[in-house]
Structures are given as structure tokens and as C-alpha cells.
Amino acid sequence: MNAETQQRILDAVDSGFEAQLAITRDFVAIPSTRGAEGPCQDMIGDLLRQRGYEVDDWHINVDDLKDLRGFGPIEHDFSKARSVVGTYRPQTNGGKSLILQGHCDVVPAGPLELWDTPPFSPVIKDGKMFGRGACDMKSGTIGALYALDAIKAAGFRPTARIHFQSVIEEESTGVGALSTLQRGYRADACFIPEPTGGKMVRSQVGVIWFRLRVKGHPTHVAFAGSGANAIMAAYHLIQALQKLEIEWNERAKADRHFKTLNHPINFNPGIIKGGDWASSVPAWCDVDCRIAVLPGWSIADHQKEIMACVAAAARNHRFLANNPPEIEWSGFLSEGYELTDAAAPEAAFGKAFSKVYGGAVEDLVFTALTDTRFYGLNHGIPSLCFGASGGEMHGFNEFVELESLKKTTKAMALFIAEWCGVEKA
């Protein structure tokens, strides 16, 4: 790809950026929390059809996925769950095929009064777009779509098959991405524009979700000593799991990538529910937890370690020793992933990055996870993850930096052109 072609594509990104931001704002305005992603999938389907892509929009059948590597349990109503894939087929086959993927699901906004502006009424100010999902990762998804648009607007068309995929459940199980693989979608590489601060994810953690179900013995609080408080017993278990977190972080010091980080394994008791009455000793407590694992660590082995930790802590508790807690696997059962055997797509992206940013792309050792794992681990498809800068993901006042988003869009457009090849339209 010569310099003139590159510049025409870059100029096209600049020309289309205001329209890109308008569509991004509309996309962020849809409150696509877990189980409510349908309107976002409708929007993506419409955008793909308007551009002439073949659109495959299907309901996800959990029974088709439950035996596949990386499947995580689904507990909520999944009857309306859908994946959407738009396929571009070239007139001339000259390049390498590509999957472009984004997820449209977002985490809950939390108490609305703690946001400076409403989370689903996106606002642009001070060079940033604010809103739930603006950074993670709706701006990246729309950016990938406008990267494709820029190639067309510059007078070119790709010479390889491209699947543009919009998935759900990235924040909880990953079965949306898994469903596209079960459906048969494959390519020579995958690119996911998660917000990475302009760095390439080199290695990422896996995640295990589990629920502690703790019993107590209820009594009037006036006689609390004769009962057993399930909430306090749950804290006893949480303290034991915090010690397990310390052990796993010690183990992480042997990992060639994660040894550079001080505390890569994070345990989080994220949801707690318990009790029925403030003046009654609580008879039950459920705690939903998340803990990370590193690439190469066995999910099954680390589930056993969690169970052993909880069992040992229960044996040292007056009530739980005879009333052991239960553990339910409540979402992610996801392995870590390290980007390997990806020299060709990384070289193509390196050229694009150098043109837009200058220099060489930096690696990122990521203490969260992305859908890249399914492509690399399940099917040996090298899966790159690179995206814009922003902040407050999963927090209040989430934002994406617009100049960073524009650069990311330019890098994606040049990468697509380099990897897939282009010809004059």
C-alpha cells in the first residue's frame, strides 16, 4: 500500500469523524445492560444492512455452546440473546480474511445521582465523550465500522472477506463471541478494539466467577449469641479468599509477563445479599465473587483450590463447620490468553500504527480479560486487541478521549487495508 493510498484513507477518517461521533452517541444512549442488548443489536444490524453487508442475526442457543471450551454458566433469561454478524465478500480475493468484533453489553450504571451527567445521555465536553459504554467499548465498535467506511470513502474496497461481529455477554461469560465460532465464523486474524490506551494486549488474565451461599441460624437480635450470623460468616470466608489471592499473586511472580506487575491477581467480592430483617440474625447470605487466573493456569485446578480454601475456612468456624457453605459457578470460567504466533498480523498492524502514531506499538499486560481468548485458544486464530484511551470504565463518569478514538480509527483503517488488501473501487 503506497503513501498516497494511506493518506486518502486517513483523510477519509477525518472527514467522517463527526458522523462517527454522532452514531457513537446514539449507540451509547442505548442502555444495553445484561439481558437488554436487543436494541443495540438492532442498531448494528441496520447499520450493516445500510452498507450492503450480508447480515446474520440469530438467537443464541445455550445448549449449542455448553460443551465448548470457555463456556460460562448462564443464570438469567437468555431467550432474547442474539449475535449479529455482517459479512463483506470481496470482488477480488487478494488479501487475508479478518474478524472485527465489538461487544455491545455494558455493566450497570450504579446510583444515577453519583454521575455528573446521566450515563445513557452521552455528553461531549473537554475532548471526551461521557456515558456508560462510551469507552468500554461502544466507541471502539463504531470506530471499526467507520474504519471500513473510510476505505470505501477513499475510493477503495478490501480484497478479502471481513466479518463484522457485534456480540453480547463479554462482561459476564463471553458466550456471545463463543456463539460466532459455533456458528462457523473464522478468519486469518481477529481484531478487537477494546480500550487499551493505544497499546497492544500481549497477555491477559482469565476470570472465574463464583457465588458463596452461606447459611446461618436466625434468632431475635436480643439473643444474637444463640444464633449464627450468615453475613458475618460470609466475611470469614472472604478473609480466607483474600489469603488465597495473596498466594496466587506470589505464584504470578513466575509468569514471564505478569511478573512485571505488582498485584495482577485481583479477588473481588462484588455483590452481597443477605438477611431478611434488621432485628433478626440473618439466616442466609450470598456473595458473588470474581478472581483472576493467569495464562496457562487450569480453570478446573483453580476451582478446586477455591473450594478447598472455602472448605478449610468453614472447618475453622463455629457454625459453618457443621453447616458448610455452597459454591456455585455463576459466570466466567475463562482462561487467560497470551498473544503468540501472530507475527504476520502484528507486522501489518505495526505499519499502520507507525504511520498514525509514530514509533512502535507498546505491549500491555492486561489485568482484565477480552474475547480474544476464544479465537486464539479455541481455534488458533491470532487475535489482536488494541484501542483508544479513556477512563472510569465500570465506574462513574466513564469517558473516551476523542482524539485517541480518531487515531485508533485511523490505525484500524490502515491495518484493514494492509491486512486484507485494497483495490480501487
Describe the model.
This protein is α+β, with helices and mostly antiparallel strands. Helices cover 35% and strands 23% of the residues. It is built from nine helices and 19 strands. The strands form five sheets. The protein has a six-stranded mixed beta sheet with strand order 1-2-7-3-8-16, with helices on both faces. Strands 4-5-18-17 form a four-stranded antiparallel beta sheet. It has a four-stranded antiparallel beta sheet with strand order 11-12-10-13, with helices on one face. Strand 4 (123-125) and strand 5 (128-130) form a beta hairpin. The longest helix has 26 residues, at 3-28. The two termini are 15 Å apart.
Q: Characterize the main sheet.
A: 6 strands, mixed
Rounded average pLDDT = 97
The spatial strand order of the largest sheet comes to: 1-2-7-3-8-16
Give the proportion of residues in helices: 25-40%
By helix and strand content, what is the structural category? alpha+beta
Amino- and carboxy-terminal Cα gap: 15 Å
Task: Identify the overall geometry.
Answer: elongated
Helix-strand string? HHEEEEEHEEHEEEHEEHEEHEHEEEHE
Count of helical segments?
9
Provide the low-confidence segments as ranges.
none
The total beta strand count reads 19
Please compute the radius of gyration using only Cα atoms. 23 Å
Q: How much of the residues is beta strand, in percent?
A: 15-25%
